[in-house]
Design a protein that fits this description.
With 321 residues, the protein is an alpha/beta fold. α1 links the parallel β1 and β2. The chain starts with a strand and ends in a 6-residue tail after the last helix. A seven-stranded parallel beta sheet has the order 3-2-1-4-5-6-11, with helices on both faces. Strands 7-10 form a two-stranded parallel sheet. A two-stranded parallel sheet has the order 8-13. Helix content is 36%, strand content 16%. The chain is built from ten helices and 13 strands. It has a domain of 214 residues: Rossmann fold. The radius of gyration is 19 Å and the shape is globular. α1 crosses α6 and α3 runs parallel beside α4. It holds the Pfam family Epimerase. Keywords: Carbohydrate metabolism, Isomerase, NADP. Pathway: Nucleotide-sugar biosynthesis; ADP-L-glycero-beta-D-manno-heptose biosynthesis; ADP-L-glycero-beta-D-manno-heptose from D-glycero-beta-D-manno-heptose 7-phosphate: step 4/4.
Amino acid sequence: MIVVTGAAGFIGSCLVSRLNADNFNDIIAVDNFTVARKEPNLQGKKVKLYVDRMEFPEWLDKNYEEVEFIFHLGARTDTTEFDPAIFNLLNLEYSKKVWLACCEYQIPLVYASSAATYGAGKLGYDDDENIISLLNPLNPYGDSKNDFDKWALQQTAKPFFWAGLKFFNVYGPNEYHKGRMASVVLHAFRQISERGRLELFRSHNPEYADGEQKRDFIYVKDVVEICMFLMHHRQNSGIYNVGSGQARTFLDLAFNTFEAIGREVNIDFKDTPSDIRENYQYFTQATMDKLRRIGYTKPFYSLEEGIQDYVQEYLIPNKYY
């Protein structure tokens, strides 16, 4: 059996689909299944058992002998939430329980970290584990992810294989439930489809023109391929960036979304909301050498390819992955 926590969420549900495609059907799906808006993400997928996230530690204690691998992707991911207690409970302490169980039962583990750990990027975006203790995230979500990365590296007891994945700006199918926290691609598609125009955040940094803010956008299909590689590889434990390795502007994203929909470009700019303005990232770009060095050779979707696939194959026909 393969466990996926956060299985009803964006990346988790896409990973379940990818596992099913390779005939891994004994999936233990762990999540908060009371959130109705996430239900469509798992429809039609092959799942052996659904386990509530708060009941999972006890379930694992009873069933660990049957578990082959754990993908711990479940987390509170809202960067606009500023109550550290929420992140401490769901992202830090819960992840410690999963880690310790994997140590005790010798289960390999892949868990979700985040590029939010890099903060404003003053130390760059290199997944060198020596700088993790020096990073300064910009919000409690980033703090919780970095705190767990630091804790994991300090442990003398570790699963025989483990990997922490610093996800950059992931976009793609099955993120439809995420509301404000959905990718800019999804927001752009909805605005363009409904209004024929798109609003982007104005730059409040003199070093960047409006729309020239840059992010490392990675298509979710690349993310799940990396997860599959690590499940089969089970060597070279550590913390890895998961991005495309290429920063692109929000204008690049906008132009490609308009083109994929078949509409004329019509862009306005609005002020970045005050609650996120001070901690807004203007540039992110993952260094991907570390993952390549351990043998991951597949090419990444370009922003053009990813948006085209997302819009044409999923958003326009209203499909799930």
